[in-house]
Amino acid sequence: MATDPSALPVLATGPRPFAGATPLNSDAMALSNLAAWHLIRIGNTGMLAAPMETPTTAPSGSTANPVATQRRPWVEEPPGSVPFDEQGMVSLPLASTGVDVSVLTVTVPTGYDGVILWISNNVINATPSFVPGSLVWKILINNRPARNFGAIVQEKGTIAQGRRVSPIRIFSGDIVTYAVQAVAGSPSVTGQTVCSLTGYYYPSKGIS
Question: Half-sphere exposure (CA, 13 Å, Cβ side) for 25?
Answer without folding.
Answer: 1
